[in-house]
Amino acid sequence: MVAAKIAVIYSSTYGHVRTLAEAIAEASKATGAQVDLYQFPEILSDEVLAKMHAAPKADYPIIKPDDLKNYDGFLFGIPTRYGRAVGAASAFFDATGGLWATGGLVGKFAGIFTSSASQHGGQETTALTTLPFLAHHGISYVPIGFAASQLTDNTEIVGGSAYGAAAIAGGDGSRGLTEKELAIAAYQGKSFAEFVSTFVAGKSALAAAKETSAPAAANAVPASAAATSEAAPYELNDKDAAPATTETAPTTGALTGAAPTTTTSAPAAETEKATPAASTPAPKASQPKKKGGFFGCCGKAEHYDS
Ligand SMILES: Cc1cc2nc3c(=O)[nH]c(=O)nc-3n(C[C@H](O)[C@H](O)[C@H](O)COP(=O)(O)O)c2cc1C
User: Fold this and answer.
1) Which protein residue has the closest C-alpha to ligand 1 atom 29?
2) For residue 295, what are the contacts with CB-CB under 8 A and spacing of at least 6?
3) What angle do CA 132, 71, 167 make, to 5 degrees?
4) Read out DSSP for 33-64?
5) What superfamily in CATH does domain 5-203 come from?
6) Is the torsion defined by CA of 69, 73, 78, 84 positive or negative?
7) Region of residue 103 (left: phi > 0; alpha: psi -120 to 50; beta: else)
8) Which of 40, 44, 86, 116 to mutate to test the pocket of ligand 1 (most atoms within 8 A of CB)?
9) Cα separation, 110 vs 188, whole angstroms
10) Is 158 buried (19+), middle (13-18) or exposed (0-12) by CB count in 10 A?
11) Is the pLDDT of residue 208 over 50?
12) Separation of 35 CA from ligand 1 center, angstroms?
């Protein structure tokens, strides 16, 4: 099997994001993926870093924009500054314009992890405000959701969110990573590597099948996926919902491409009133049961499959 290539790229002033990066890289590597650790180029002067009492930098190589082309996925370790990404990460993305212009990163994947001083200092906003970098490059974002049980453990303060692992460093940086935060980091490393590896394996199977014209290509794409590719992109799940009235309502043609019509027939509201479908109360849509979640905190238990 072709191993997925993953770059864990981080910035860290006091060491928390570095610790997360190392835990994430180790867990990713354990899946069989090829994993390399990098640092974002520092943009602050030595003088400023000294005034901030920054920790010495690790020896991991400094990432260059072109290095990104060599990987299938990236795990970005981006500490929080004023609720968003540290400038070093932002400056690095500013240097990737050439890759953007050539679509060099289209089809790759990324996850985000972070660190903030306080529990509510912006871990989620740091991830959210980093998403435009990914979107503009055509990189697909892979969150971690709540599958790591530590994320819903309220017996102690735990950094991290559905957007990725995180440390809570404390105002003076003295709070170390807890076992639970490290477990979330390991989960992110493992799940991301498995996700990207699945994609890489499928892609290489498709490429091999194309080369040999073997029927494996058909097997590589699940029948259900093939069937839905022709289907309407947005289809209501609920077949019991009220019948559509679009056939009787006049259309401006805006969506169909037809010329807008000035019709003398009754406006939509009146037409609907006149049709039996509209005068009969629409059958109540049956409430579809939600799939069982990872935890039962939200909503009523009966709304979830056990
Ligand atoms: C200029 C500056 C802005 C910061 N802004 C925030 C913030 O908005 N919220 C927060 O909780 N922590 C904030 N912090 C604290 C850092 O997020 C924290 O020191 C960092 O995540 C620790 O990670 P590290 O040990 O890898 O450097 C800020 C720190 C600096 C230097």
Assistant:
1) 81
2) 146, 149, 152
3) 60
4) -EEEEEEPPP-S-HHHHHHTTPPPP-SSPBP-
5) Flavodoxin domain (3.40.50.360)
6) positive
7) left
8) 116
9) 11
10) buried
11) yes
12) 27
- Over residues 224-248, mean pLDDT: 36
What DSSP string describes 4-24?
PEEEEEE--SSSHHHHHHHHH
**Tokens in use for 28?**
């990713």
Q: Where are the domains of the chain?
A: 5-203
Judged by DSSP in three states, 194 sits in helix
Q: CA–CA separation, 234 vs 288, rounded Å?
A: 17
Report d(CA 203, CA 213) in Å as an integer: 15
Over the range 10-44, which residues count as b (16 or more CB within 10 Å of their CB) and which as e?
bbbbbbbbbbbbbbbbbbbbebebbbbbbbbebee
Give 254: exposed, middle or buried? Use CB within 10 Å, 0-12, 13-18, 19+: exposed
Which residue matches tokens 């990725």?
164
Say what the alpha-carbon torsion angle 202, 203, 206, 208 is, to the nearest 10 degrees: -110
Residues 6+ apart with CB under 8 A from 268: 245, 248, 249, 250
Q: Is the pLDDT of residue 13 over 80?
A: yes
The more confidently predicted of residues 48 and 237 is 48
Burial class of residue 181, CB neighbours in 10 A (0-12, 13-18, 19+): buried
The pLDDT tens digits of the residues spanning 14-28 come to 999 999 999 999 999
The rounded Å distance from CA 120 to ligand 1 centre is 12
